Amino acid sequence: MDFELSREQKLIQKMIREFTENEIAPITAETDRTSTYPAETIDKLFDCGVMGMAVPKEYGGAGADLLSAAICVEEISKQCASTGDIVATHNGLCCAPILENGTEEQKKKYLPMLTQGHKVGAFALTESNAGSDASKGTTTARLEGDKYILNGSKIFITNGYVAEVFVVFAMTDPSKGTKGISAFIVEKDFPGFSVGKHEEKLGLHGSPTAEIVFTDCEVPKENLLGQEGKGFRIAMATLDGGRIGIAAQALGIAEGAMQEAINFTKTREQFGRPIAKFQNTQFELANMHVGIEAGRLLCYKAAAIKNTGARVTLDAATAKLFCSELAMKVTTKAVQMHGGYGYTKDYPVERMMRDAKITEIYEGTSEIQRVVISGNIL
Q1: How far apart are CA 196 and CA 278, in angstroms?
Q2: Which value, to the nearest 10 degrees, does the dihedral of the CA atoms of residues 290, 291, 292, 293 take?
Q3: How far apart (Å, rounded) are the C-alpha atoms in residues 238 and 322?
Q4: Residue of 142, 126, 69, 50 whose CA lies nearest to 300
Q5: 135 pLDDT tier (thresholds 50, 70, 90)
Q6: Hey, which residues does 187 pair with through a beta bridge?
Q7: C or N: which end of the chain has fewer Cβ atoms within 10 Å?
Q8: What does pTM read for this prediction?
Q9: Cα–Cα distance between 295 and 317 in angstroms, integer?
Q10: What is the C-alpha to C-alpha distance for residues 313 and 317, in angstroms, rounded to an integer?
């Protein structure tokens, strides 16, 4: 068992760490304060090969492995979880299902758009009455001649109002429940496609979240992703990979918060000495370190397994559950260690705590991860 990153992975980690410190860190607070989509940063990440990191070079990607992609999200999220979310969604929830399930024609058309073409991707599964239970979705797709006609809406779509390519799930046969769900590649310029409500959120203010509406939306027949009725399988397999991205995002948030706590406790003095000198502070930092080390191993293990093509459902759910709950614990403790300062926007830990919460909710709540884990071990 080798715990050492490869030379290429170390180079990617170093590159993204330097990029994040130089290009992302200086604007993170303003991005959060103004709820601004970091368009220039994302364009630079396209130029660096991060958007489509694990897409083969023949389709315009960087041709890196999935662990490298996870490391990118981790490093970015140390400074800006919003940017990490945009990248994780684009790579894990849009590029990945097209790469894994698309025809050669679909891959040649859409993957270069999502890598070299600077077009952001999104994933549309959740509906107002279909969150954890995807079988309750009411968005429909009806085949008429050489087109599918989509009607319905999707909510809480990450990258929703900036994305140009969407992987969308709709009922082609509502009577069959999950076996009646099909997947489609939808472009924002297709007739009948529109963006609805822009969500105002507790955290991730730089990550654009919106409702997507389909009103007799015309989707070419050749944009069916996989086979009719196989959409649920595609969605669940995609979420397996996506959960590794969320684990990496949560891990990065926790790492960033621990470093902020270390920096603060070394300089903040009470009772005549830095609070880092108090045993309680030291114990809390030790607990943070142990949790982060464990989370990194779980996240990296899941990414490495996914890279082999083996089933990763259990490992992805385990990593996502552990890392997301870790992020919430570490950021909450970091705020506490800052005292009153932690409750102000003068220090980044309050933003990190707000950002951390969603990792316990999206791409399967912590409760759903426990359902997945228990179902696999039983």
Answers
A1: 52
A2: 50
A3: 19
A4: 69
A5: confident
A6: 165
A7: N
A8: 0.96
A9: 12
A10: 6
> What is the per-residue pLDDT across 260-288, written as a single tens digit (0 to 9) for each?
999 999 999 999 999 999 999 999 999 99
Comparing CA positions, the residue from 151, 91, 79, 94 lying closest to residue 124 is 94
User: pLDDT per residue over 184-218, tens digit each?
Assistant: 999 999 999 999 999 999 999 999 999 999 999 99
**Residue 66 tokens, joined:** 């999935």
Is the predicted pLDDT of residue 1 greater than 80, yes or no?
no
Six-digit token pair at 271? 């009772």
Q: Which residues are catalytic?
A: 363
Residues 147-188: tens digit of each pLDDT: 999 999 999 999 999 999 999 999 999 999 999 999 999 999
Alpha-carbon gap, residue 351 to 205, rounded angstroms: 9
Domain topology for 232-377: Butyryl-CoA Dehydrogenase, subunit A; domain 3 (1.20.140)
The DSSP letter of residue 199 is: P
Does this chain's domain 7-115 share its CATH topology with 121-229? Answer: no
What are the extents of the domains in the chain? 7-115, 121-229, 232-377
Sequence-distant (6+) residues with CB within 8 A of 309 are none
CA distances from 171 to 21, 155, 193 (A): 44, 16, 17
At 320 the pLDDT is 98
CA distance 87 to 84: 5
Average pLDDT value over all residues in the chain = 97
* Cβ(126)–Cβ(156) below 8 Å: yes
Band of pLDDT at residue 133, cut at 50, 70 and 90:
confident
Token pair, residue 328, equals: 């919430």
* CATH classification (class only), 121-229: mainly beta
Return the CATH class of domain 7-115.
mainly alpha
Distance, CA of 53 to CA of 91 (rounded, Å): 7
Closest CA to 348 of 251, 282, 264, 285: 264
